[in-house]
Amino acid sequence: MSSDFKSLVSPLPWPELFVYWVLSLGSHLYSFYQLHKFSKEHETGLQREFQLENGLFKGFKRDPSDFEWSFWTEWAKKSLLWTLVGHGILSRLSTIFHPRLKVLVLTVYDFMAASSVLGFKGVGVLLLHLSVAFSVAQLRKPPLAWIANLLLLSTIHIQPLQDIQRGWYSTEEEYYLLLFSVAVCGLRFISFSLEHCWSPLDRGPAVQLFWLFSYTFYHPFFYNGPIITFKAYAEQMRKSTEESNGGESALGYALVRSGRVLLWWCLAEYMIHVMYMHSIHSNETYMEILPPWALGGLALALVQFFYVKYLVLFGFPSMLATLDGLVPPKLPRCVSIMYSFTGMWRHFDEGLYRWLIRYIYVPLGGSRHGPLYKVLSTGVAFGFVCFWHGGLDYLRYWALMNWAGVLVENCIVSLLASSCLRSLVEQNFSLAMQRRCIAFLCAFSTAMLILSNLVFLGGIHVGRIFWKRVFVQGWSTIAPPMLAFLYCFAQVGLERTSLPS
Fold first, then answer.
1. Which pLDDT score is estimated for 90?
2. Cα distance between residue 17 and residue 421, in whole Å
3. Which residues have C-beta within 8 Å of that of residue 192, sequence separation ≥ 6?
4. What gap in Å lies between CA 319 and CA 328, rounded to an integer?
C-alpha cells in the first residue's frame, strides 16, 4: 500500500507537519519513560522471576529475555565476530593480490569457518541437503524441486532427528545454531534449484556445484541472512573478480559502517537496560497492570527493539558483502514510519520479500491473472513464511493477520483507484485533505500491524491482552488517543514515502 499511495501524497503546510513530528516523537519518549518507570518500580519482582543481569551501565540491570539478541550476542563474542572479520580481511587481500582467485579462497575459508563452529557432523547435514537439492535440480522440474526442498526443511521438526543432532553438541546453543543454518540454507537451496530449472548456468555440473557450494557457505549471510538469490550472488561475485575497489575507499567505508553498527548495538543494549519489555511481556500479570501509557510504550519498545536488533544483525554482514562486490538488500526501514502491512513486508526484510515474490508469488500467478490468483499467491507466500519460521500456533495467527491485512489494503487501494470513486474524491476533496484521509485509514492499518507484530514477538497472550485492554475495555478511553497518535505516525511515514528513494 505504501508505494500505491506515493502518487497520492501531496505536501502539507510545514506547521502541520511540524506538529505531527512533535507529537510522534513526544509520544514515543513519554511512553518509553512510563515503561522505564514501571520497569524500575517492579525491578525486584522481575529480577526474582527472570534473573535480570548486572548491567553494562552503572545502576542498571540488563534484561536478557530476548532469546535472539542474547543468542547472537554470545555467539558473536565466542567466534562469529572474529570469523567475519577474518572473512573481510581475506577478501581484501585476495582482491588486491589475486582477484580471480577471490571466490575460491573465500569459499574454502567460509567452509572451514562453518566447520569450526558446527562441527563436521553439522556441516555433514548441510552437505547432505546440498547434494539432494543439487541432484533433484538436475531434473529441471520445479514441482519436484519444491517437494524435495520442503521435505529437507521439514527434517528440522522430526523429533528423532532432533534428539540425534542434540547429542552431537555439549550445549543447546550449538544445536540451535545448526537449526538456524539449516533453515537459512534451505532458502538458498530453493533459490538455486528454481534458478537452475528456469535458466541453468552455461557451465558443466562441476562448476554449477562449486557455485552452489560457494553460495551456501558464504559466511556473512550463512547463519542469519539477509537473503539474496542464487542468480544475484553468482552474477555479482563473478563481476567482482573482474573489478577492484580502491583500498582507501574500502577502508573508509568499513570504518564508517562499523561505527554505525556499533552505535546501533549500543542503542539496543541501552533499551534493554532502561526498559525490561521482554521480561514484562512474558508475565500476564504485569501486562494486565501496566498503565495505559506504559502499555503503549511496551508495544513501541518491542517493535523498535526488533528493528534496531536487525540493523545490527544485518548491518555488519551487509557491509562485508558490499566489500565483496555484492549488492545486499537494504537494511530494515524504521518501524515507526511503517503505516501498512504491505510496506512492512517490502521494507523490513527486503531480501526475504524479494525471495517470496520471485519464487512463490510470481510463479503462482500473482496479480497478472486476476484477484483470485493474487489472493492464492499471497496466501501461499504467507503460509510458507509460517512454515519456515516453525509453524507454531502464534505464527499461524500472525501469518493469517498479515495475509488479511495485505488483502484488505489491496482492496482499499483498488477501490480508491477506481475511476468512479477517484473522480468523486478529486471533485470534493483537496489534495491535502485526500492525504489526511489516507493517513486516517493508515492509522487503523498501523494499529492492526502493531497487533500482529506483538503476536509475532510476544505470542498469542500478548496480542490478546493488548486487544482486550485497548479495543475492548479501553474503546472509549485508550483507543481514540492511540489512533490519534498513530495518525501522526502515518503522516510522518507518508512524508518519508514522498521523498525520493
1. 92
2. 27
3. 133, 134, 137, 212, 215, 230
4. 8
**What one-letter code names the amino acid at 462?**
V
- pLDDT tens figures, 357-387: 999 999 998 778 778 888 999 999 999 999 9
Q: How far apart are CA 50 and CA 133, in angstroms?
A: 43
- Of 217, 259, 220, whose CA–CA distance to 104 is shortest? 217
Residue 80 CB burial class (10 angstroms; 0-12, 13-18, ≥19): buried
Catalytic pick from 42, 98, 389, 461?
A: 389
Dihedral sign from CA coordinates of 176, 181, 182, 187: positive
Task: Give the C-alpha separation, 129 to 161, whole Å.
Answer: 14
For 11-68, give the DSSP string.
---HHHHHHHHHHHHHHHHHHHHHHHHHHHHTHHHHHHHH-PEEPSSTT-EE----HH
Closest CA to 348 of 382, 311, 378, 375: 311
For the entire predicted model, the pTM comes to 0.91
Of 308-317, 419-428, 446-455, 475-484, the least confident:
419-428
Check if 389 is active-site.
yes
The band of 244, judged by pLDDT with boundaries at 50, 70 and 90, is low
293 touches 30 (CB < 8 A): yes
CB 50 within 8 A of CB 249: no
Enter the C-alpha cell of residue 324.
565483496
Cβ within 8 Å of residue 169, ≥6 positions away: 119, 175, 178
Question: How buried is residue 48: exposed, middle or buried, by Cβ count under 10 Å (0-12/13-18/19+)?
Answer: exposed
Distant-in-sequence contacts of 240-244, Cβ < 8 A, 24+ apart: 240/95, 240/99, 240/102, 240/324, 240/325, 240/326, 241/99, 241/100, 241/102, 241/103, 241/325, 242/99, 243/99, 243/325, 244/95, 244/96, 244/99
Residue pLDDT, tens place only, 54-104: 877 777 888 898 999 999 999 999 989 999 999 999 999 888 888 888 899
Which of 416, 448, 409 minimizes the C-alpha distance to 434?
416
Q: Sorting pLDDT into bands at 50, 70 and 90, what band is 258? A: very high
Question: Treating both helix axes as pointing N-terminal to C-terminal, what angle do 142-154 and 172-198 enclose, rounded to 10 degrees?
Answer: 180
